[in-house]
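Hey,

Quick one before I head out. I ran the complex with 2-acetamido-2-deoxy-beta-D-glucopyranose overnight. Inputs first:
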Amino acid sequence: MTKQTPLITRLLSLLLLLFTIIITAEGTSYGTYDNRMKLFVFGDSYVDTGNYFTSPSYKLPYGITFPGKPSGRFSDGRVLTDYVASFLNIKSPRPYSLKKSSELQYGMNFAYGGTGVFHTLIDGPNMTVQIDTFEKLIQQNVYTKPDLQSSISLVSAAGNDYLKFFVKNGRSTKGVSKFTASLVKQLSLNLKRIQSLGINKIAIVLLEPIGCLPIATENTSYEKCNGTLNTVAMNHNHLLLQAVEELNKEIGKSVFVTLDLFNSFLSTIASMQRNHEANSTLMNPLQPCCVGVSSSYYCGSVDEKGAKKYSVCDKPGLSFYWNNFHPSQNGWHAVYKRVQSSLRKIEDKNL
Ligand SMILES: *[C@@H]1O[C@H](CO)[C@@H](O)[C@H](O)[C@H]1NC(C)=O
Ligand SMILES: *[C@@H]1O[C@H](CO)[C@@H](O)[C@H](O)[C@H]1NC(C)=O
Ligand SMILES: *[C@@H]1O[C@H](CO)[C@@H](O)[C@H](O)[C@H]1NC(C)=O
Ligand SMILES: *[C@@H]1O[C@H](CO)[C@@H](O)[C@H](O)[C@H]1NC(C)=O
């Protein structure tokens, strides 16, 4: 069993090995420019691209526009993450739940639909836990310091925290300012932590106008936004902007950039409302495309026999909202166009 391998064979395999190493190394350096930027995503369904296996987002009619079947996105198609990734010229990062060692180069998406900064109505990983998971990957050297230094983080949060607050408080806004203060405080700690793990560019979304969500406007037949709830969002954003400014000051450079979902939702909705008024075949942007057939059902519901208990609008591409809580791909695309100038700010810092 100790038969010696002939020297020539050993030399040949050594050569082959060297050759392979050179080719691989060249492959790597050739791809360096693309490999440089990675996107790490934390938060909720506005940015989740498939982490929540047991949610409706993995059932029809989710995903009918893109990728053509349910993919765990809470939309008929692309969500904000996909557009941010395309802006950075990379593929949308893989959801952590679908982690594969071969697809780490675009970063990782830890966002989980229904979750928040604190514990929410669902039993998913809050943002702290999502960051813990990220930290473990760094400790395991899945991502290295240089990887992180050239990476970008996208953070979306707070909608579900408020949802829980209002459900628990019988829709009353009593005590909401105190809640906002503690929420922003925790969120700010989370942001700081992402930065201290080594990411130098972090985009955080401001809270959308929660009073315009179909869940808040169905009461008025989707005619107008709930101003009380929008004021809650404005106060939240006011505090968050202050917190972000303080963080940037502390660090001494503009690591944190905000994406203004509040004004981009409102201006998109206003412009679609004008179009709807001029041409009634266009959709009322406050009306969701996909709804349950009655209040006991929701978008994606089926009965015991598997029969559909929801309806989908004729042209999802003309809607702003996909369901009671989430923009459609068309909605996200319009919002993305309006936050592009802020995204340019994170790119610039790379120069
Ligand atoms: C997040 O969840 C973990 C695990 O359930 C919990 O220990 C932690 O307190 C939560 N963090 C916040 C900020 O609510
Ligand atoms: C708007 O939202 C507030 C807070 O949940 C609620 O008390 C109020 O009834 C809502 N207004 C309408 C017209 O639905
Ligand atoms: C619907 O609106 C009325 C006031 O117009 C309000 O009293 C009620 O609480 C609202 N219901 C919901 C579900 O917001
Ligand atoms: C109204 O919008 C529909 C859908 O986009 C379009 O096909 C139609 O030409 C428009 N009508 C007018 C009068 O602009």
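The first strand starts at residue 39 and ends at 43.

Talk tomorrow,
K.
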